[in-house]
């Protein structure tokens, strides 16, 4: 029997490359995101590789849509062996003009979106006594980076949520995997400029799947960036502030 993978954020970037790689490995796929045309094109590509794909339009910030997407997947494929939760957005946080509404948007997609998936997936996989749920957090979860504080906060919360739940769910046969990439070249980072130690999305997807396959529970890459961020984490506040301090233009919202 072919294994079933459910993917959020399949229309672009890391999620897209993971979908193709999983198809090559023989998985059947439930592909989800908001952009229907991109999903349909990907589903055709997956089918041309020789496996099956269902494309489901779903906004992860809407719990009803997430519930329906997962129900549709199980109705069609009967089970879910692997869930890849890649849907996410990255937007700058201008501290001088902090907007709770902007932060809420980040939270709804990057954190609550994952939690809506978890509510459904955990029930299914605990019943199966088997399954892997892998969410894409970030090395940015390690410390609040100036200019991206809101994004970092959503990823820090996601990594903590997975860390605690991972231990609880192990005895039910369900493995939670936290994926914490450094810079990966995707549409999300297209406007970022200089990205030290950047990886390509297809290479990242292959690395992620190799490490999921080998049983890893936390996947951080690339190694030098991972070590650097770990060191940043233990830096005393004074030193951290000095290193990351930089002036950025104030961009005020029009009220
Ligand atoms: N690229 C990096 O350097 C990097 C580093 C660390 C972590 N990450 C994380 O990796 C994940 C994938 O990022 P990426 O670089 O591949 O970015 P990307 O190319 O922009 O892809 C983001 C994906 O998320 C989907 N998405 C966004 N909002 C959504 C919503 N409300 N509902 C459903 N789907 C939504 C998008 O699809 P639609 O627009 O079609 O909905 C798209 O498929 C994100 O969680 C990101 O935070 C990326």
In short:
The protein is an alpha/beta fold and 255 residues long. 49% of the residues lie in helices and 16% in strands. The mean pLDDT is 95.
Task: Give structural notes.
With 255 residues, the chain is α/β, with parallel strands linked by helices. It has one domain (4-244): Rossmann fold (3-Layer(aba) Sandwich), CATH 3.40.50.720. The protein has eight helices and nine strands. The chain has helices at 13-24, 36-49, 63-77, 100-128, 149-170, 201-213, 223-234, 237-244; strands spanning 4-8, 28-33, 53-57, 82-85, 131-136, 174-181, 184-185, 199-200, 218-221. The strands form two sheets. Strands 3-2-1-4-5-6-9 form a seven-stranded parallel beta sheet, with helices on both faces. Strands 7-8 form a two-stranded parallel ribbon. It is globular and about 55 Å long. The termini are far apart. The model has no long low-confidence stretch (mean pLDDT 95). Residues 8-9, 11-15, 33-35, 38, 58-61, 86-90, 109, 136, 138, 181, 183-184, 186-189 line the site of NADP nicotinamide-adenine-dinucleotide phosphate (NAP).
Shape designation:
globular
**Treating each run of at least 4 consecutive H or I residues as one helix, how many helices?**
8
Bound molecules: NADP nicotinamide-adenine-dinucleotide phosphate
- Rg over CA atoms, rounded to whole Å, is 18 Å
List SSEs in N-to-C order.
EHEHEHEHEHEEEHEHH
The total strand number stands at 9
The oligomerization state is: single chain
- Can you tell me the CATH class? Alpha Beta
Whole-number tally of structural domains: 1
Please state how the strands of the largest beta sheet are arranged side by side. Answer: 3-2-1-4-5-6-9
- What is the architecture at the second tier of CATH? 3-Layer(aba) Sandwich
Give a short account of the largest sheet.
Answer: 7 strands, parallel
Q: Hey, roughly how much beta strand do the residues contain?
A: 15-25%
């Amino acid at each position: 029997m072919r294994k079933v993978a459910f993917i959020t954020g399949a229309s672009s970037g890391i999620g897209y490359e993971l979908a193709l790689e999983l198809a090559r490995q023989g998985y059947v796929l439930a592909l989800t995101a908001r952009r229907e045309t991109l999903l349909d094109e990907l589903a055709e590509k997956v089918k041309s590789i020789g496996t099956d794909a269902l494309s489901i339009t779903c906004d992860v910030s809407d719990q009803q849509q997430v519930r329906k997407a997962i129900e549709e997947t199980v109705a069609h494929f009967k089970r879910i062996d692997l869930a890849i939760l890649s849907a996410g957005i990255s937007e700058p946080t201008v501290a001088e003009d902090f907007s709770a509404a902007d932060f809420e948007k980040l939270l709804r997609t990057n954190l609550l979106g994952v939690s809506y998936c978890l509510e459904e997936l955990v029930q299914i996989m605990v019943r199966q006594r088997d399954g892997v749920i892998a969410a894409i957090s970030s090395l940015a979860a390690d410390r609040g980076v100036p200019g991206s504080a809101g994004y970092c906060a959503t990823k820090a919360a996601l990594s903590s949520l997975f860390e605690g739940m991972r231990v609880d769910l192990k005895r039910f046969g369900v493995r939670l995997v936290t994926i914490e990439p450094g810079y990966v070249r995707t549409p999300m980072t297209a406007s970022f400029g200089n990205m030290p130690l950047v990886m390509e999305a297809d290479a990242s997807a292959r690395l992620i799947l190799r490490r999921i396959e080998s049983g890893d529970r936390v996947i951080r890459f690339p190694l030098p960036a991972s070590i650097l961020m770990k060191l940043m984490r233990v830096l005393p506040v004074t030193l951290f502030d000095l290193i990351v301090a930089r002036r950025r233009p104030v961009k005020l919202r029009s009220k």
